[in-house]
Amino acid sequence: MEDMMNGSCREFIGALSAAQPVPGGGGAAAFGGALGAALTNMLANYTIGKKKYADVEPEVKTLLGRSQVIQERLLDLVQEDALCFAPLSRCYGLLTSTEEEKAYKKAMLSKESKNACAVPYEIANLTVEALEISSRLAEIGSRLVISDVGCGAVFLRAALEAAWLNVVINLGTITEEDWVQEKRQSMDALLAKGRALADNCYKLVQEKIQ
To answer: N or C, which terminus of the chain has less Cβ within 10 Å?
Structure first.
């Protein structure tokens, strides 16, 4: 499968809108998260080198370094999500004429659904970390582009919400109940934490621009 991030944005949007299983919500979540991280990085880059913010520059550089890694990883996950989900989509076409075929389909759906959870789960973790960074940069970064880090938080929250949906929808076909319960609890905790961080960042930005 050709790397979807090597084409244009229009090509990716076109593929996203087509009647095909990939790219889908997971890839869109990763891409949206990368946009959010990029906006966070924009604020950091505007802050670095300014005399007014010299006292926080070392911290900003550290935050930027980590956020750049998150941005690039999220872009990689656009393609990885497609690679993980494609086998699952094929499972839905398996035959169910006999009991043996039904059992095989159930087992394969469970296996591939579990695999398909991996990427959106990583997206959720990365976006929460990115929201921690954006929240801190909203506190100490340049006011010149403060609205952009708020926009970034909106994208990151949307990516997190989308990642949650993409994990939870696959839990219903996984037969390992303990694994399902643990993953659901973990995702719910990430969602709650990320929402709180995004709300805090957005509120802080609102207060600074009004």
So the answer is: C
